[in-house]
Records
---
Amino acid sequence: MTASTLITHIGSLVTNDPSLPGADPASGPLGLLRDAAVVVEGDRVAWAGPAAGAPATDNAVDVGGRALLPGFVDSHSHLVFAGDRTAEFAARMSGRPYSAGGIRTTVAATRAASDDELSATVGRFVAEALRQGTTTVETKSGYGLTTRDEARALRIAREHTQETTYLGAHIVAPEFADDPAGYVALVTGEMLDACAPHARWVDVFCEQGAFDGDQARAVLQAGQARGLTPRVHANQLTHGPGVQLAVELGAASADHCTHLTDADVDALAGSGGATVATLLPGAEFSTRAVYPDARRLLDAGVTVALSTDCNPGSSFTSSMPFCVAVAVRDMGMTPDEAVHAATYGGARALRRDDVGTITAGARADLQLLDAPSHVHLAYRPGVPLTSAVWRGGKLAYRR
Ligand SMILES: [Zn+2]
């Protein structure tokens, strides 16, 4: 028999399951319960509800009125890299604009790094994210840009997460600067063959200076033919075809969504949640750019996720609490909406039903805040509130 553990005296419990008995109807999709308890059995949540109705268990943990939430689901990061771009950031903060080209610096350093060095880097950032409440991390290739280096990046990423994304089409490899068509042929051919066994998703940076709509379509469809599901870097720096292509091809997510036409918003809404709009405020923060308009998307009925885009060039943060705070302060989201997007929204962007909620049957991926409410994630920006994190029912971090 698996031992059961009761986590009780939860001051406020975010379940993302509004159908749970005792959930406050005013909290909408957040499914908020006060004075709640959760029962963990093995790696799963066995029960969640009002503390007064909790079943008998083998063990009990009293969390003293603190807030318990699903672990954050960070559905967009670029952790397989080497090198340092501190000087580029400092220069940009002195007034130079961001362009896609800085990626080449990281490509050169990543190619030169050893497997062990790259794996240690991924592990370090996954652990850093865990200490801030993140229990599921997606990460991408995209700094290798050769068949060998892209496959290596995905193999290393797989040591740390099942949510791996083939992004050979991050930028055109420097060797193909005069032959972008040749590079697309490589990305959709030999490189894809080497990478597909290590990846769940296929992605493309659809942007001026990276890949146009036709090239992006070719990359995504080739990935689909190999069993990968698309996600798209879309409409980050300019208007473009990325978002509508994502919806058309049934991508799980259109990421960035900073520059949208009404037709783009309609397309995302029309997908009925199949294509999530993943907003990455760390990128706008770190490039001093205009934030995406989350309010416009939410009001149109689009499913929204928040994610870090953690990468050394344009968004070097692993902090989901930071993203929640910025989304509330500058993107028109309420604290409830931002927390929902950082948990349930991220799970939807990865098409995962087992994470992002605290309800019977879900994975016991939980975070305890040193605060009475999830609202404090935005109310107390920059303050390390993560008190404990359980991953798969096991205590993975405790301050
Ligand atoms: Zn990205």
Note: The radius of gyration is 21 Å.
---
Amino acid sequence: MKRNRRKGRGLTTVVLNNNGGFLSKVSWLRAFHLIQLQRVLPVEYYEITYRSATEEHHVPSVVILSRYVPYDYDQPAPFCRENVFLRDQFVCQYCGRHFPYNRLTLDHVFPRSRGGKLTWENTVACCSNCNLEKENRTPGEAKMILLSKPYRPSLKKVRSLEIRQRENLATRVTV
Ligand SMILES: [Zn+2]
């Protein structure tokens, strides 16, 4: 049981609106509870299981709302680690290499130690090597080139990137 729990830690579940549109991501345990409350239906599962005291359950990777919830997809996407990685397409914005979720970190372009904020405009996906190299410096001070200017994407944009990434993501986390 312990092993299964550890394996499932950190896994997220995609929540789709009733029309199939991307809504958000929640922890798989939250998704599991929503299934039990019949607020969502499972669509896809990870290839791992979760064992409760009495039963074994499949861990949901995608769930869909039982009822449609109106949502404005032109509004800005909520800021979170996962959405920043999606915006940057899981590419370190300094060395340009692609990394899986668990090997990326959030870099404050203007260093946090000097008042840099945790916002869309001041945060990029960054690998641990580049993060170490940059230290508490701006890209200019560290003589590192930022590959793209960080911006705040719409939910629509994040959703389209999410759809593109979903297959890769599912493959990566089940390895
Ligand atoms: Zn890098």
Note: Helices lie at 2-8, 28-36, 81-87, 128-134, 155-174.
---
Amino acid sequence: MTKKTLLGLYLGLSLLTNQALLAWPTEVAITIDDAPTINTQAIVSTLAANSCSVTFFVIGEQLPKYYSALQQALANNCLIGNHTFDHPNITKLTDQQLVSQITTTEKLCQEYFGTKPIYFRPPAGRYNGANQLTLDRLGYQTVTWQVDSRDWQKPEKALACVTSQLAELTWPSIILLHDQTETLNYLPDLLAWLKQKNIQCVGLDKIISDRKKLTEKPLATNRKF
Ligand SMILES: [Zn+2]
């Protein structure tokens, strides 16, 4: 083997390694906040047509009107998470008020879905240490996100927003979307894009355990989980 061939091989391998480091995450979990609404049924159908299961974070006061769409979602392996009763800033609540927000929604979930959620997402991602203690006591795991679609602000840019953020990540990641009319416009394209990049949509439980395994490795990151 000549020196030139060896150099070529070395450069080729370096390029491959760099590409591997720049790869997209291999898996994501999609989460949809502020459900259920009048749009949930159509969102559930789009997800089912793409064999994709997500986690819907529900607002308790919206359940009595639209819960049936989520019963269908559960039958399609989606999960339900607790997102309070009426979407307050929980850092401003007393402990008693927070407990009421969570348990009222929990009771409705048990009534409509026969199950108690185990994941909690604070409205707007805001929570403090005292909230965390209450959530721990109630048996909830607080889940935020790594990729924010900002679809409630600029829905027309949600797809570009998600794909550009994913390009900077290599770890399994949680994506935040919202249950709203505009989501129906970009969701099919987002699901097609994930498929094209071979990024698997997996359950929240899998992403959380995979990220935990990675944090146990010396490969440290300063990314917020
Ligand atoms: Zn919300």
Note: Helices lie at 3-21, 40-49, 63-75, 95-113, 129-137, 158-166, 183-196, 204-215.
